[in-house]
Amino acid sequence: MGKSMTASKSPLLLTPGPLTTSRSVKEAMLTDWGSRDKLFIEMNARIRSRLLNIANAKKGYVCVPVQGSGTFAVEAALGTLLAKSGEVLIIINGAYGRRMARICEYLGIAFETYETAEDTPPEPDQIARIIEGNHRITHVACVHCETTSGILNPIADIAYLVAERKRALIIDAMSTFGALSLDVQDVPCDAIVASSNKCLEGTPGMGFAIIRESTLEGCEGNARSLSLDLYDQWLAMEGNGQWRFTPPTHVIAALDQALEEHEQEGGVDGRGARYKTNCRTLIDGMRKLGFQTYLPDDVQAPIIVTFLTPGDANFDFGRFYDGLHEKGFAIYPGKLTKVDSFRMGCIGRLDEADMERAVKAVEEVLRDLGVKQHGPPLKKRA
Ligand SMILES: *Cc1c(COP(=O)(O)O)cnc(C)c1O
Fold first, then answer.
1. Whole-number average pLDDT of the chain
2. For a pLDDT cut of 90, what percent of the chain falls above it?
3. Nearest residue CA, atom 9 of ligand 1?
């Protein structure tokens, strides 16, 4: 893939999103669609149906898209699903879990949190105890892969215990949807929230929620926001196939093409396999250079990898970033609260050869910067 499939000047994005897309996905944005055009309305129906397919949610679930980035969709889902009298338990081990709590503060939704360290998955037993100790809890919200670190949370175990206790589950699957299996037959849940521009390899501008239809039917009047009311958005879309307000037409056209390419690659299994190879290639190559990953391999999702900042006094993230950018790669700063780190993603239109070239570029940039010690500072981790 690499160069031939991307515009000549743009670097490959080794980030948590937006991500590198194929040329054909970008080209799908060259048409100006009218939002009432019959072909556009068909396209809209097609993407909604394909998104349901990816979660094996054709029966009993609906797909409600919404304008904006992923956070808009998370905010819309929390604001629409939680009744005024509801209370949500938010499971936190990174920035995206914390963001859900922040959304609830803004919306005036009652919530409780269960937080573990950023390198530690939540304990299902602990979640069960919290639910049993608080009968006001109506919903549980959890991130599938917490992109802050790249950690994979045990979503199936959580889904079962939440379902057993008759609470509703909202999953932020933003950074996994389309690459890691999330089948509603195996992972019972009320809503899965994701966006157009991560593992689906579309362009940014649209989020969506896959919602259990019987749940959504009871959500009239819940929303704290007109534009983020997924109940109303759903009714309108079911009515005439159109969006309530100006749809991101170019983004939808790009997603339509991206979903076609997702299917051609073999769906979730095919895409997930490429990302796993990318991740393995990246981690093996970086470890060979002496870097340490923040997470142990058994909780690392094949999405984005956090590396500890080298202890060498010559290392400077700004110069490292610029050097890599010059060689055609964009990386991402760390977002951990306790440890100095940087992140390299392995999702988007990237393959094994791209990851090998990225590792080579890291080696060359560090040599140019005079950085010899690639491991973390030689002291105990905080
Ligand atoms: C990317 C992401 C989001 C949404 O972020 P936006 O910047 O609003 O697109 C939410 N949750 C997770 C886990 C993410 O990775």
1. 95
2. 93
3. 70
Query: Closest ligand 1 atom to the C-alpha of 197?
Result: 9
Give long-range contacts, CB 8 A cutoff, 24+ apart: 120-126.
Answer: 120/93, 120/151, 121/93, 121/151, 121/152, 121/153, 121/154, 121/299, 122/91, 122/93, 122/153, 122/154, 122/158, 124/154, 124/157, 124/158, 124/161
Expressed in angstroms and rounded, the spacing between residue 195 Cα and the centre of ligand 1 is 8
pLDDT digits (tens, 9 = 90+) for 235-292: 999 999 999 999 999 999 999 999 999 999 999 999 999 999 999 999 999 999 999 9
Burial annotation 89-125 (CB, 10 A radius, 16+ → b, else e)? bbbbbbbbbbbbbebbeebebebbbbebebbebbebe
**Closest ligand 1 atom to the C-alpha of 198?**
1
With a Cβ cut-off of 6 Å, ligand 1 is lined by: 16-17, 69-71, 74, 96, 143, 147, 172, 174-175, 195
Helical packing angle, 70-81 and 95-107, nearest 10°: 50
Characterize the bridge pairing of strands 12-13 and 61-67: unpaired
Q: What pairs with residue 306 in β-bridges?
A: 343
Tell which one of 67, 78, 96 to mutate to probe ligand 1, the residue whose CB is within 8 A of the most ligand atoms.
Answer: 96
pLDDT in tens, 111-136: 999 999 999 999 999 999 999 999 99
